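Lay summary. Proteins are chains of building blocks that fold into shapes, and those shapes determine what they do. In this project we predict the shape from the chain. Here is one chain we studied, written as its sequence of building blocks.
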Amino acid sequence: MSTPPRSDPGRRERKRLLQLDHLADTAWALFDAEGYEAVTMERIAAVADVAKGTLYKHFPVKEALLRHRFHRELREGLERLQPVVLAEAPGAARLRRFFDLSAQWSERHRETLLPYVRFRLAEPCHGDDSQRSGLAQVFTGLIADGQGAGGFRTDIGAEVLANYLEFLYLASLLRWLTGATPVLQAEFERMLAVFLGGLEVRS
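And here is the predicted shape, written in a compact code that computers can read:
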């Protein structure tokens, strides 16, 4: 398991990132206080004290503000989670521990997770890594560790398997958020059982 690498941005880029954080944090505070659906982009711009054009330039929709906030939380949380996950044996145990922790985090953010997940699933695939959550890299590391320990198949690369797992993760979240399944942790366990064992019945 590895955390996404950190680059050292220049002064101009640091200023831009600070503004993005300010806008996302302002929106988050408003969502928490007034409810996600009730908050408009115009309200966010007014409270953040920026022109509407500035807000729309960086975040064309509210869901993009959620993406920025959630992805930053993930990057910051990975450092704390890493020793907990790595305390498990390489392979399935580490994946299960990661998903247990993810379920706990998701429970605390349920109200705003549904628009975020729908937004992510609707986004076109492109090569802009700045919009990625970092989950694919985490999954790649956990799967590669399992392959190295002899617990996972190696005929398919870790990056490809991680890509499959990321979409299964989002689909599981969506089922829980829309009420198709009542307990997220149980949904993650079922999803992982299929991912790890496959669909075929083996004699």
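What the prediction tells us: The mean pLDDT is 90.
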